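Sequence in, structure out. Go.
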Amino acid sequence: MTSPGRSGGSRAGGGQARTEGARAPEPRQQPGRDAWALLTSGALNGLSIGYRARRTRLDAARRLRLLELVDLVEISLVTLPMHADARVIALG
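Output:
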């Protein structure tokens, strides 16, 4: 399920990451139209975020691996994201 678009850039800070993008003016294929309909109705808003970790460090006190530098590979729409906060928060 894809709808072509373009990235508006990504940034991170305060333990959160944010990505902005723009969708193509009008999806030309049925899967793109279906995805847009699900997004605008609120039925679909989860994200799967694929990345390659380029630099990490271990926070032993909190037992966490911190991602300091990543290459964003893809962002996909999903019904059940692995992280509860991986959600579409605005449509334009």
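Check: The mean pLDDT is 82. Residues 46 and 81 are 5 Å apart (CA to CA).
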